[in-house]
Amino acid sequence: MADKKSIAMNMTRYITETVSDSEFITYVTEKILYNGQSDYQQIQVFETKAFGRILMLDQAVQFTDVDEFIYHEMLTHMPMLVHPKPERILIVGGGDGGAAREALRHPEVKNLELCEIDEKVCEISRKYFPQIATSFDDPRFKLNIGDGIARLKGLREGAVDVIIIDGTDPTPMAIGLYSADFYRTIHRALGENGVFGTLAGSPYFHPEWTKLVYRELSKIFPKVAMYTATVPTYPGFLWAFCVASKGQDPRGLDRSKRLASMEDDLKYLNCGLFNAVFALPSFIRRMIEED
Length: 291
Known about the structure:
The protein folds into two domains: 6-64, Spermidine synthase, tetramerisation domain (Spermidine Synthase, Chain: A, domain 2, Roll); 68-289, Rossmann fold. The chain contains nine helices and 13 strands. The protein has helices spanning 68-82, 98-103, 119-128, 148-153, 180-189, 207-220, 256-260, 271-276, 282-289; strands spanning 6-9, 14-20, 23-37, 42-48, 52-57, 60-64, 88-93, 111-116, 141-145, 160-166, 190-199, 223-230, 238-245. The strands form two sheets. It has a seven-stranded mixed beta sheet, sandwiched between helices. Strands 1-2-3-4-5-6 form a six-stranded antiparallel beta sheet. It is globular and about 50 Å long. Mean pLDDT is 92; it is low at 1-6.
């Protein structure tokens, strides 16, 4: 998910990502499980000693076996829990199925549509990350291979309860997922009390992205809150997310009963953490509030 510009690969032992001109992240690898090109991007799967399997898209780490639950739980459950009764769910991106897996833990969900532009990502995830792609076999799940922006524009007003964007960084292919026009489309597609959740980048390496997401959402939604999570394999570790609501303020809600029903399945999020993550470090709070 992070802004990785290049990767150097020793075919026998190492993969090294370039995060910036002065920072690199190197993983010791055991083998290359997959290395191919889809119609949209390069897809690679590596077996590593410390992090298990790693999925890379266009030379950027998307997740690893060891810490994927942090990203997927925090991206998904926060907006799902803000909505009082999330029955109709749309996830744009996330072809690996991780966000869908988490959303389907909520018993209120009646139907979930995953709109992924790159079918190959779904195929690779089902083969190499079956523990993440469990949602594909759920009867409430529907896979739609196509452009997410076009799909949202085609929805009737108020069609869904929760929309989650599980996309890549604002690269040329994905930049449309972070525009004010796109957020207006999302607002229209959400029903009463509708909630939207998205990644907002690394406050260290992508401060402009972090500010952009918060500010553009704040122009369109009455209630917007930023929160953070620590993902070990993402540069800077501390990453930001945003949840935007047409109804309830995300902060200060009591969701202990709903969280308790999923407690045995969650590895990161819990009742105490749900409200605590909205308490931002001062530098992030000042960053998003400054003119």
